[in-house]
Each structure stands twice: as structure tokens, then as C-alpha cells.
What we know:
By secondary structure, this protein is of the alpha+beta class. The chain has two domains: about 5-90, 2-Layer Sandwich (Phosphorylase Kinase, domain 1); about 100-325, Alpha-Beta Complex (Aminoglycoside 3'-phosphotransferase, Chain: A, domain 2). Helix content is about 45%, strand content about 15%. The chain has a five-stranded antiparallel β-sheet. A two-stranded antiparallel ribbon has the order 6-9. A two-stranded antiparallel ribbon has the order 7-8. Helix 5 (about 110-125) runs parallel beside helix 9. It is globular. The termini are far apart.
Amino acid sequence: MHLQPDALNSFFKTTEIRNIAIEPLTGDASARKYFRLRSPDMSWVLCFDAEYLNHTAEQYPFLDIQHLLSSCGIPVPRIIGCDKKQGFILLEDCGDILLQDALKREDTDRSSLYRNVVDIMTSLQSVRGKSTEMPFDRAFDEEKLMFEFTFFLDNASLYETHGFSEKETLILKNEFHRITQHLVKPEHFVLNHRDYHSRNILVTPSGPVIIDFQDARLGLPQYDAVSLLRDSYVTLDETFVYQMQQYHYLQLRENGLTAMSFDEYLRLFDLMAFQRNVKALGTFFNQACSLGKQEFRQYIAPTLAYLPGYMARQTELRESGAIILNVLHQPTP
């Protein structure tokens, strides 16, 4: 998408536009388009979202959830202005240093940074609201979790020519359904960002800032923890993962967000991680093979590499995990 200067008329005066440089930004797996706008002494991020442009309802997820999170002290980019007729949202520029990038720096205190990020995650999970209002009217229920599992099955054949046989597909669907039933526990549900990984967390001088939050919904507190600690983009060592699991669990307990034991937390963490990683594989297959974004291929192997650990610890995952690893040519434990 090429952005013409006159598209900025809703936000700036004509004399100001003359001094603004427009720089396209590389997006992730999103259909939204982003641009950095630079003046001699200021910068902003402009988002184009066709969904916003065509949205007919009074509520629009990104704006409503940004307002909710911001009002609860969750660090998210500030909204400068909106132009619904053109599908534009002008945002505060929080830089472009992702958590993924910050971890490559020698001077990064990984433990301190992750604890900060877990604190923000727990604060988000503490947010409450009416069950009839967005995002509390959306949840990782059986329908949503099975939709994500099915998305993986539908896109696996794009990556592996032969895909799964009819028998394997039937077994996987049955196993996925069983796994899903373990994960639908509304009594434990909290608000989740839904995509809380290292490419949706910006690291700024004043601390982490959360982006891409418009799909927030209720689910197990492990969902966001899995996204962060079993990240397809950053592989953390097992000792550190366990330390962060302990830290998150204690934060949940201290904030009155869970009554489950730590053993149950870990069991559901593995089951949730399996579901989350399988869904991510479907996304990577789709992005690389259907949409031609070949950069996503590099994240397939690290994501598959998580599965044997879950299978070793949780018997419920062994049959489906073995089929997936066999068809996708990965060693089974």
C-alpha cells in the first residue's frame, strides 16, 4: 500500500504535512498496514485497517480495548486521532525495539525484563468487566479452540504435500476435542491479550509497551504465559521457563486470580502450550505457503521442537503429537 501525503489531512495541517516523511513499516502476520510518520521534531505511527474502514458496528475492538487497557494502567500506545472514512488510526510512536530484539543485546537483564513483562501480563489478567461487553463477551471456548486446531489441519497440507490421511485426521480431530475439553474451565478464566509474544511487546526507555491487543478474550491464565514462554520467535532455556512459570503462578495467587495448585498450573500450561503451538504452526503454514511470506518458514522447526517435551510430560498429548511429528518429519520422543 502506497500512502499519499493528502491522506494525512485529517491529522495535520497542509503546512505540517510538507515536513512529514512517510516510512512503511514491516508488519507481522497481520492484514493491517503500518507507517511511521516523521517530522523534524516528532514521530507517529499510522495504522491502516480495512476492518476499521468497513466496520459498521458502533464498537471497534482495537479502539475499545485500547481504551479499556489504558484506563487500567496497562502500557499501550496512546491514540492521537482517528479517520474512520479512510480506515486510519494515528498512534503514539513507541519505537521499534521488540522484546525479540532486546534479548539479543548483551546489556539486557533478561530476568528483570521478563519479570516486568509478566507483571504487565498479570495486571492485564486482573482487568474485569461486564460479561455482555467486549472483550469479556469473547472466550477461548470449545468452538474457538477447535477452530484453531482445524485451522492447523486445513493448512498442514500446504506445508507437507501429502498432509494427514483420513484416518490420521479423524484421530487428530478426536484427540484435539479431548484436549480442548481439558482447557475449557470458565471458573479459571481471566482476560488474555491472546498473542502475548516477543513480537508484540515493545521495549522502550520507560518500560515494555504492549501492541496488537485487539483480539483480547477470556481464557486460562496460562494462555498468555504460554505465548510468552513457549514463543515461536524466541526459545528460552528450560530452567528460565520454570522460574518464570513459578513467578507467574505466585503473581496469580497474590492477586487472587487462581485457586489451582502449581502442579495443575503446570499440567494445564503444557496442554495449553500444545494447543497454542499447533495453532501457530497453522498460521506459519498459511503465511509461508499460501500468502508467500517465506520469512515465516524459519519459525516452524522451533515450534515443532516444543512438542516432544509436552508429550513426555502429559500422556494426553502423546498420540496426537506423534502423528503431527511423523507427518511433518520431525523426530518423536
